[in-house]
């Protein structure tokens, strides 16, 4: 309840933020609210009574989010629900009568009110409050609601009528962000939460909020005090500074409680914690929200942090990442700096702060976030400076400056204070779009030999998800891969109709699965059985004209298990090409296609694979010899050959003793460890020198182990048993095929003895995978097969720029050969020849024609007779690009420069372009090279 006289002012004072049980119980009271007198108060005891009342889980009339303040709601029970409908109505009427009795009495008689609205001189608030700033900016402030505050010891401050008018005025809008329109199509509201007990730091907190260039934001301040005078000063400051929400709590409350209280009053899609004493530079929120929305994660923060040490007047860089990888930009992490957490409100609703901890509430929150399977991503070290004061006892993190500098830290500057950093370009966004006169290419200056660059906005299109939404029923691995290419709605068997009606779904993709993301689909697909949920989904989609796709990735062994389900769908993919005729016999259409396994470059990539390996060999999977006898023999062969070489076996059933037949024999016990989550296993791919693989299906032209493609894309060789589909789709580069114990031993010795040669073989496999076997290709194939107007995107090309003097024509042949031998098909060469004297132009053109034997649209030669090029590479490259752009058409969004005297291997261009797929770089180059 926002204020004492809420019943007089509005019938809908209980907002969607209130727990649904409270909303339901108070509903009859709201219907008759016009008859109640002003200045009425609902005692807190009534609220506690309502919150402690148990109702059936289907009676969620006003529910928007699940009730998270108590135990989890019980599962739906129709019999129990019917039996409790009449008692529920009786309880509602009883509560209405009981509450009305108290409301006719003065509120002060029954204890302190739940919350009190504050205005200048305690003037009452206007009857209608704006629900969102943008509503007022549009001129629509007529239908508003005050957010709920179900805590008796919190004082809430909201701007009075005059402030509401000024907020709606366009003269006082937040300063627009120059680059925001390029980063966000529609900015979503961010709730900035600042908690403090130090009034002197209020100005710093307000300044941090004001200078954020992110446009849609609100400020929520929580002040911790037991002093009435200090509380009055705080509330006065809130009114003067037009703070969106001001809360006061007793000094005894924990930070976890204060965080939950603030977020209960928030309205934003996202929330950010701002410490009162740190410095948040203007682009801080832009970077954080850009990271969340681009990478589709729930929580981001910083591991690399700039510290300002007051005792030394020094700026210090410190990495709280691992020793082996101190650079943590856009990397998953177990935790981030608490003062830099930015997350979605939806995440907080499911995982609230622990309000009983005296310290470490942020770490505890992040730990539970990770346990729930959410990804925590690191933003850059820019845009934030942590302030370390001289007195240690003024911090919650009790660490001295000496201890802070002891690990992974270095000084950046001395004696310059912190003020000069506020306008420093060193702390701007690393991805800020460049200003450029040419809309097709990015002008880049570099002193690196051999680089490829791409325009930032085009790169975002290249890497970002396609503009489609998939309704998805899949296991963890497929969900993780598909969600990196399109927006995904994970369809739940009990909520599918609500999800399909609420979301704009373009395609529904269902794969053959065993359990789903959280075991919710377990036992829903069985031989000869079609789950009613699947039938309902397909029928609903058919009425709404939404294409449905089924992918049976378990063919051929589980064809009979899934054929009844598959026959319902519009499009069918099978992992076993030989079964296409069998599907055509059983389904009423001809939309049956073959799709094997692929890699997802965002997850499976060679970043970090060249670091020193921690272990030798690894096998991940189950034994299952009773189901697949040949598989059991193959596993025995590989493990027998590798036991004395050092092997780790991740057993899928190690923690499930009931599956006795699927566990590994006792002789392998020393090597067996429990399985790890999929996201952790992906990192394990790069920690071993080689992986062992068994193909359960040998005689299939398209079916092979999924893990092979993922491991090869991660830069690790594979020692595998034979598989026809493996050789046909992936090839033998990077894969050692073995079928006997001697062959397995020899292959293991070869890989472990020549790791460099093994990597070069894997490199060949990576080229094929990133070109033809990615989930982006699978998703685009689904769209092209299920949507008539969809066209697949073509491969990316590159424009090669080069320059030479007329006195260097002997190098022309080497340049043309380096370009012509490039494996990349879509390429263009623009050569600028600098002629010192006009008399030799004809001679130069004659040499060019004799070198370029046949006319080619891929090669353009420009003869430049102006001033000689500057020697400095940065200046010459800019001039080179300018000339090329003035006199010809640069066809591609990726550009590079070839030196005529250098040699470029056939895969130079396609290797460089591949790196743009799995990194977020705008420039890709080589740090090492060969010299002849």
UniProtKB/TrEMBL annotation:
Say which species the protein is native to: Palpitomonas bilix
> Which SUPFAM superfamilies does this chain map to?
Nucleotide-diphospho-sugar transferases
Q: Does the keyword Transmembrane apply?
A: yes
UniProt keyword list:
Membrane, Transmembrane, Transmembrane helix
Cross-referenced InterPro entries: Glyco_trans_2-like, Glycosyltransf_2, Nucleotide-diphossugar_trans, YkvP/CgeB_Glyco_trans-like
**Where's the Glycosyltransferase 2-like domain?**
193-302
- Which Pfam families did the record assign? Glyco_trans_1_2, Glycos_transf_2
Q: What protein is this chain from?
A: Glycosyltransferase 2-like domain-containing protein
Lineage of the organism: Eukaryota, Eukaryota incertae sedis
Domain Spore protein YkvP/CgeB glycosyl transferase-like per the UniProt entry, residue ranges: 669-783
Q: Provide the transmembrane region boundaries.
A: 86-104
Q: Does the keyword Mitochondrion apply?
A: no
